[in-house]
Design goal:
The complex is a heterodimer of chains A (357) and B (295). Chain A is mainly alpha-helical. Chain A has 16 helices and 4 strands. Chain B has a single domain, classed as Orthogonal Bundle (ABC transporter involved in vitamin B12 uptake, BtuC), CATH 1.10.3470. Classes of the chains: A mainly alpha (357), B mainly alpha (295). The interface between A and B is large, with 54 and 53 residues.
Amino acid sequence: MLYRRAGIRHTRYQDERQLWPLPFDRYLVTAIAVILVAAPFVVSPLYLSSYLLPWIIWSTAALGLNFLMGTAGQIHLGYGAVMAIGAYTSVHLVLSGIPFEIAMVAGGLMSSVIGIAFGAAALRVKGLYLAMATLAMQYIVDFVIMHFPAISGGSLASIAVPRVSFLGIPVVGDIRTYFVALFVCVIVTLFMLNVKRSSFGRALAAVREKDYAAEVIGVSTFKYKLLAFWTSSFIGGVVGAVLAVCYLRSVSPDQFHLELSIQLVAMVIVGGLGSVLGSFFGAALILFAPIILNNAIGTFATNFGIDISSDLRAHVPLMLYGALIIGFLIWEPLGLAKIYNNFRNYLLVWPFRHAQR
Amino acid sequence: MDWILITELAINGVFVGLMYALVALGIVLIYKTSGLANLAQGALAMMGGYLTWAVASYVGASMWIAIPVAIVLMFLVGAAIEKLALRKMIGQPVIMVIMLTLGLEIMLRGLLPGIFGSAVKRLDIGIPNAPIFFGEFLINRAILIGGTISLVMIVLSLIFFNSRLGVMMRAVSDDQTASWSVGIKVERAIAIAWGLSSAMATVAGVLWGATQGIDWSLSLLLIKALAIAILGGLDSIPGVLIAGVIVGVAESLASGVLDPLVGGGTRDVVASVIILLTLLVKPHGLFGREHIERV
């Protein structure tokens, strides 16, 4: 049903290698693209700036982290710090009069240079130790940003982001900032979709599956791990810049603490390691589930006259992130993307279940 | 340089470091038996502190009853975590299991302040506030007692690893399949390791709760415990002892000497720097076995 494979015959190899070989998938992607482009003109500005915009930005960040965790199989617990480096670098460059386009890329480069420095220290060892090193990176970057007034303007200060223009269009108002974020998101998504089909992506897959084996067949493990770190940190830095300019509009150190890193890791795991679609699902669930649950608890409490302390409600997001991470790891380690995939596979051959591969 | 101040900082640092080492001991214990790093150790310490406070204030028990009750409860909690969550992850990549313990840490950090309220709880275990003077040096009494108790616990766990159960656990850490074949119950050994490390986390939680009060910030002990565990070598108990003293002194000196120069906050970053330096110079730590895979 819907996703019909019957009657679709590929007569050329490139037909079969395209991103979405099934017509229905193509229709779906087109529909989503149309919805995303039309959304700012339909949805009220409140929803646009408080739901859609953060979803787009956090999804892009989750994609960058997913590249490292899913595609390359390396763990990173300090992605918030990477984004902070990108955000602060680009904001300072914009303040000194450099155009936003260049500042954004420079922020990404700065992130990847610093990220690779920490990565190189940790990539000699792996797994557990990499987790520790990236966790240490988070704390050290936090400390440096907070305690060097030249970067943060003091530990409690926040730096307002000036008006910028992106590709000649001034970034003002909800609709334009939304399109800037969407533009970056689309580019990162296209990169993620296509990287798996390139030699780079295949080398990363080899390193992820078994590093000895990769080394034996001539894939330099260290080089590709570093490249994965570099690319992922670059995306992180660019997203940090977008986050600062389009969403936060004034940067302060506490916006990039460990909480952000944990949120992103939760998005990647809940969404599905290595899945592009999963990053979007994960970002949506992690961003909105606490809000929805909090509202539900609120209505429940008022309707049934039960007094629920504000402490409890304030801690709902943390509980939920933890519970979601644990639950998905135990029951569905490949995340929401796998659930969607199961559903799609079911429909693909419906009603002939025995034909399922 | 004021040598009296520095010596005093160093002495206090030794005892604070011993108190950190108690948290690290739990991480080492779990790593020794199951080869996993438990990123929830800080949250378990926090949970132990909260449970002690809850038993004492809701039931009205005295501290001498509340602490053992909390330790027993936490032993069960630790064993339950192993049985319900960790055992299902056997055979999964290490990265997944690390994420699971991180998820546990996040959940506990939300759950406990959510249930018991996020205001700082005072835990009075009967240590007077007045500092002790040794000649010219001033030492915080709570830290002195806490450090001594930690030292005793660490020595006890050294002795424990020579007992029958301890030998069993060492066998499990060497080779799970081999210990299975000689009739050791591997699952039970790992569950006991989790229980024991949760119990130790409780002691650490109570000691830290007595010095700084109980709130979510107790879970920040994790990063210091990790620094100690990595510096000492993840599978070495004497390493915990020595690395604990090193980290404690380094932190105390950094906060005393460097803080005035950079404007505070160095205390929290020392542990991270130590982690990075250890990984750069000697990734298996001071006393750890050199079996880290390098690629």
